[in-house]
Amino acid sequence: MSLINGHIDRLRSFEFWREGCHTFAKNVTTMLERALKDWDMAQALQFLQTLPRNRCELASDEWQKSYCCLCLQKAWENSPQGAREALDYFTNYFVDRNYDAQAMLINSIVGIVGGIEAAEKELENKEMRGEPLTG
Prior knowledge:
Blueprint: H1 3-7, H2 16-36, H3 41-49, H4 55-59, H5 61-64, H6 67-78, H7 80-93, H8 99-129
Helix pairs in contact: 2-6, 2-7, 3-8, 6-7
């Protein structure tokens, strides 16, 4: 059964999803904090969109020039001990997950980040127009 094609709501005991999202988001945040210290949602999205999806990609020249790879390298330079677990997550665990599981994790976080950004812009626009922020 494909989880991507609308069947996710039919699965029982899908509690592992919360842990998967938690672990993924924690490792993304750790890497960005270690690499950039002060980062924003656009940088998080760029990191997510350039994650390695398999072991072959890790070795490719193209990926090694990617934003994600640059962040992983910078995180390691800034804090080898602090970045070790998250680096291992992306280069050993995440790349070995099936493509659908990777896509679900990435798209979940991208969707949440996009929703937060859209809500923030809407509130800023209302505030600039002098409209009430409730309702």
